[in-house]
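During the reporting period the student researcher (J.K.) took over the structure-prediction task from the postdoctoral fellow and processed the backlog of single-chain submissions. One of the processed entries is reproduced below for the supervisory committee.
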Amino acid sequence: MTNSAVVNYAPKKGSVEIREITPPKIGLTDVLLQVENVGVCGSDLHQWTADHSWPVNYPVVLGHEFGGHIVALGKDVRDWKEGDAVVSETAAVINSKSPLSLQGLYNLDPDRKGFGYGVNGAMTKFVKVPARCLHKIPKGLGFQEACLTEPCSVAYNAVVVNSNIKPGDRVLILGPGTIGILCAAIAILTGAEVAMVGLEKDASRLAIAQSYGCTPIIKDASSWAKEVDGLGVDCVIDAAGVSETLRLALKWVRPNGHITKVGWGPQPFSASLDPLVQKNVTLKGSFSHNWPIWEKVLALLATKRLDVQPIIGGVWKLEDWHTAFNAMHSGEVVKSVLKP
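J.K. obtained the following structure tokens:
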């Protein structure tokens, strides 16, 4: 039996194609998941265009935003059964005995390897998943929405855990991609007043962000940032993939404010960090997520307090991956979803 998959096979730009692969063999503590939906992430696009900044274990099946049904269980797997509808976290490989893993912060374990770059991901029909990564999909939540638990968890970690946003705070989000828009949606749930900054080409994405209740801004956020007391916003969340936006964040954040950087970008930061010192600003990175975050996000999705439908621009068959990738890469849609 073969298994069609979207494979990133080399570091050269454009090195992604459909290949037939052998279905994976599961270990004692794994399950075999039949994938129902898998979201396309910006990182999948970056590996396709070869402008990523992380090591990739070529060739590798792309895809780390996924959900499906369990079709087989390893002999040591407990508390799961065939047919269960689940989503999976991304930390496919961890050192369970590392100090960070023992604290529950396995997302920061230096030995961590994720689906879609370190091990084979879910842009295929069957994927091997460690049982520890699984979360049950709540009743009434469809796979199209559930497969986006992962980017929602990235946003939740950035907004709630790493930014400590409080009701009434004024928050500026830079970058209207999937993570930026989800950060805005979650920041609004916390009771913050939120604005999002993009470029002219981002008009349709900014309109989606506005539908969540935030103020859309083209390019210059200076007036919004300083309209209350002239000092700037309480928090800036940098969800753009370029280093230049950090300079803008330093400009628009208030003294004693907070900047959280969740967007990746390989370009070096070439501006002075003196404003960080002068304004007594806290700068914090935010990476990935862990178990309790996933449970919180699934609860929000199940109750519709967090609705991801507005960002889903379409669902494509696996063989139409190139169309789905292009739709996101061109900015035509915020999020593409594949159906293996």
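The committee noted the following: The two ends are 15 Å apart (CA to CA).
J.K. will present the remaining backlog at the next meeting.
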